[in-house]
Automatic annotation (TrEMBL):
<protein>
    <recommendedName>
        <fullName>KIB1-4 beta-propeller domain-containing protein</fullName>
    </recommendedName>
</protein>
<dbReference type="InterPro" id="IPR005174">
    <property type="entry name" value="KIB1-4_b-propeller"/>
</dbReference>
<dbReference type="Pfam" id="PF03478">
    <property type="entry name" value="Beta-prop_KIB1-4"/>
</dbReference>
<dbReference type="InterPro" id="IPR050942">
    <property type="entry name" value="F-box_BR-signaling"/>
</dbReference>
<feature type="domain" description="KIB1-4 beta-propeller">
    <location>
        <begin position="7"/>
        <end position="210"/>
    </location>
</feature>
Amino acid sequence: MASYPDLDNEDWVVAIKLQGSKIKLYRPACPHGREPCFIDVKAMPRSIYTLSSIMYSKKDERFYVPTPGSEYLCSLDPNSKEKDPECIGLCTEDLTKHLDQDDINEVKLFCKTVHFVEAPSGEQFLVKWFFKYEDDFYKEITSRTRQFMVFRAEDHPLGKKKKQLVYTDDIGDLCIFLGHGEPYCLRASWHPGLKPNCIYFVGHNLGVYDITAKCCNIFYNEEVPLRSSEFPYWSHP
């Protein structure tokens, strides 16, 4: 679920991501009346699936949902009368400029989810979250976070229908929070106890990932990794 409501204005909207590729918009007052209403978003691409995350960009004033292959962002204007999403192409630079081919091949062996997030400054990032299914201490199949890749999303010189993804291992004073809810980004120096240039994650275990060091610290309870809870979300500050 994602929103950026102006509570002083009755015409705010919340986007709700449902099973599969379905999205609904909720308004406290419908365009043709004062009663609350749900609006179905039409024609969502089939490449959007249940684990795709939705977020609101204050900078662009749009809802975004990245496709699992990170080729596109599905973009939705909450103020548009047309409830059909637009597709924003994502152009990724050559990763061999930054990573060894062995590292690139290794992550292809993992499962992944893709998330789009915006910093308070308006900087935008696409994050690939890699995890692997394995037997745990109790011989049950669980998922375990292995790695993340972070890309800065910059305006493309060819226009608004594209964004350029540039690999980075340094997001400065920022930290990113990922779970099964809306991803968000905070300045670590504004919140004592947070570590900058890190990703805090819950969903495939619980832990923190240092982006520059590529170090994944999973939290344990005695000798057993803390599992994903039935409600693996971070509450917004």
